[in-house]
Amino acid sequence: MLTFTNPSLLPLLALLVPLAIHLWNRRPGREVAVGSLRWLQAGANRRLRNLRLEQWPLLLLRLLLLAGLVGALAGPAWRPRRTLGRGQILVAPALAGSPALAAERPRLDSLRRRGYERRWLAPGLPRISQTASRADSLGMPADSILALDHLANTPDFYAERIRLAADSLAGQPLLALTPATMRGNGGTRRPLPAGVTWRLLPLAAQATWLQAATSTADSLHLLLGQGTERQLTYRLARVARPQPGARLAVAGLPPLRYQAATATQAARLAALGPVPEPAVPVRPAPLRVWVYAPAAQAAEARPLRAALRAAALGLPGPLALTVAPTLPDTAQAPDWLFWLADAPVPARWRGAVRRGLRLWQFPAGAGRADTSHLTQPQLAAPVAVWRRAASPAPGAQPLWRDGLGRPVLTATPLGQGTYYQLATRLLPAWSELAASPDLPALLLEVLHPAFDAAGQQRLAAHDPRRLDPGQVLPAAGATARRPAPAFGPPLDLRPWLVLAGLLLFGLERGLAARTAATPSMVAS
């Protein structure tokens, strides 16, 4: 396809200039005798009426020379059309060995006979060998396929993977097969290019995985996640604490290996499946929480103690809660310290934060009047906030926000611990938090670390909940914008036009010199 980088063809109007000059500067008409004015006037009139082309080869060369100059200024380029390849079948590695993919085998074999190629929907789009997609005798995919799925696991972006594949395989019809699970189907989805067919296939009806673990002196408390196509549930399992390096068998889970704590990391449970998975840290239990509440804050400590006890029902292990007007020994620092006193936090406890303490400080002073509402997903109804403290320090991460987007609870990582700062208090004059039935759920989201970034990744890797295809695929009859035909890299034609212009210029000069040397016939 011919394109122009500077698409301005108005200079082609300059071709009219040499044409007009050529028509006007034709060879003189027949000479007449001087004195015969009537014949002289008639000759002039015939000159205007009988304009005709003469020396047209020279005129044609000059017009071509000028047209070549105009074309070179327009920047012509030739983009050859790519030869369309055969169709492609893109299979998500998570479908390898699944019954849903086996049910699609007749359709895929039919497409292969028509010339379609099979590729994994993974980085690089590797081709699928003849034996790679077959399940072994236990109905499980090969280790290499599981490893491929592990490396290609970028949750929430199956749609973007398909778009990237369509760009890499431009102009080829694509059939994409992905699991109909919440894993990999999050985020926003733009319309797919024309020629792309996306099908969602169901995976296993249920799954069980280890979500979190805590330990006591003689046992391990395991939080097991169980999911079906419709819902997720969690249950607690207690097993004897194994020796370091020993295997642990739990119903529904692959074998686990217990790794004891070291000076640099906590104890861990590592899965011994065909593909290595991130080990689950084993946190010490019970969770030790100390609420420092002098006598002046005793009224505020009561609703906090009740909310913490209610939140303990969702913890994977027991809760060791202490509410006292004195501070604990720094040598046996708790996991959490709630600071309700108006006095500033001593330096020794601020230093304990860097060694792993999680310090939650309530605001000091009278605060300032304010009217807003705390809005969190855990709240059945917004919670009013009537007084608040000054803004938190820069760099703090907001955990709770009000309806105006201002932080109510912030977290600042310090070393191995975290410093939490609440902008309001659990007093009726400050907020409705103390009377809210959702306060335990709010505290549980902060106390329970099972669903931090690593916990969310574990959930996303095993979540079997099924999506309705209508939630992902475009509606019936919806058509995407047809993409422009795929072309190869442009070839610049300006050097060729310059070379042709030089040749035409030489021909024009030679023909002009030859015409000038030819004597003209003059009528007597």
From TrEMBL:
Positions of the Aerotolerance regulator N-terminal domain: 1-76
A Pfam family it matches: BatA
TM spans (from-to): 6-24, 56-78
Keywords in alphabetical order: Membrane, Transmembrane, Transmembrane helix
PANTHER family for the chain: BLL2463 PROTEIN
Name of protein: Aerotolerance regulator N-terminal domain-containing protein
Organism of provenance: Hymenobacter polaris
